[in-house]
Amino acid sequence: RSDEFKSYESWRKQKNETLIEEKKSLIIESTETITETEIVFPKTGKKSKDFLPKSNTYEIQYETKGDLNNDNLIDVAIVLRNLKDKTAERPILILLQNDDRTFSLAKLSTIAMPEEFSDDNFKNYDSESIEIEDEVLQINLYGSGGLVGNLFSHYKFIENEMVLIYIETYNVGA
Question: 95: exposed, middle or buried (C-beta count within 10 Å: 0-12, 13-18, 19+)?
């Protein structure tokens, strides 16, 4: 699938292969929308809220702005939170600004941002942030120790792919 985030190694491997095997995915792409199971995300809009599914099951939890693809336009990354299930996955949508100031949904990931709460109703991370700096999307998750420590991941657009270029974790415990 061409609209998901990739690790640097998988991007490099795919780049070097002459025949790319198509993978089965829960996410289906059409010309109008990107669909994740039963959730439909619009592909174009004028503002971040235009990309919320019509099902009213999501709200924008985090939003950051900056140039991701080196075109001198202000792009947007948003993290969505499910309003009905706080243990649900949280999609990250990458919205690239067009010359006419509208946005296009370029990438979507349901794994780059972990669930906010565990199945036993505990918050996974004490503090979370996303930011775009120097064309890099940074996801910073801070835990209080034990099983959940700190997790920092950086993604960069490389040849129209959102590629994981850096990951760091720090855990403490007995």
Answer: buried
